[in-house]
Amino acid sequence: MNNLHLRFPNGLAKCLTLSYDDGVEQDMRMCELMKKYGIAGTFNISTGNYSPEGKRFEPGRVHRPMTQRQSLETYKDEPLFEVATHALHHAWLPDIPLSEAVHEIIEDRRNIESQYGTICRGHAYPYGKYSENIINVLKSCGIAYARTTVSTHKFSLPENWLILNPTCHHKDPRLTELTDNFLNETPKLSPLFFYLWGHTFEFESDNNWEIIERFFEKTGGNPDIWYATNIEVYDYVQAFNSLIFSADGKNIFNPTCTDVWISLNSKSTCKIPKGEAVSL
Ligand SMILES: [Zn+2]
What we know:
Layout: E1 4-7, E2 14-21, H1 26-37, E3 41-45, H2 68-75, E4 81-85, H3 98-116, E5 122-124, H4 132-140, E6 145-147, E7 168-169, H5 175-184, E8 192-198, H6 201-205, H7 209-219, E9 225-227, H8 230-241, E10 244-245, E11 251-253, E12 260-264, E13 268-272, E14 277-279
Parallel strand pairs: 2-3, 2-8, 2-9, 3-4, 5-6, 7-8
Antiparallel strand pairs: 1-12, 10-11, 11-14, 12-13
The structure holds zinc ion.
Zinc ion is lined by residues 21-22, 86, 90, 126.
């Protein structure tokens, strides 16, 4: 049997994704930086919490949700960005009636889909809070993955996409060490998946935009890294998991509409084209 491992599109062994919450004004600056460095990521928004047009915030307030118009201008039609749910009103989901939780998820999903012209299947848990019941609600509402706030300090792909634990928050004291490890390692077996999360208003309240700029300077423009939104990684991994193998493992059929790459015996990388079979 061949020793097989997932490789990302074009045979890459590393993937970087971002996840930023709450749809605040500082996302505008973040999005400009992401475009400058070619970094992809997901923005988790509560469409019931858009600010009304013309709203004026009290001086010193850093958590300033964007208006719907600002959000559309910031995220819409940009391939580097995915917009995902964060509950309609940023509800503390495990504590509210389940029927309300369903409403919080499905209405946010419907709004995102109609406003941004997408199919929305991602979620980030408000306050990082979830329960078994809430996971079932997400499944019933067609949500494919949901991010927690628990750092793994690892680069492994999630086992359970509805309990998607990130690598770390941008404020994590180990960010530099993790970034260097991610860049310096040459994976022989499993691929490396770096998942960074946070809120962009924290860069303003902590006065440390340089943290993310430095991170982008280091990790951007690297031909060894696949820059992907959360749902792109999810969909790609599903395609990999859909590969069909002969009993001896020598014939592989890819029944999906996505080209899939595998690493063979840590020696070579092989493409299994969509809809085709490959003999090893
Ligand atoms: Zn939030």
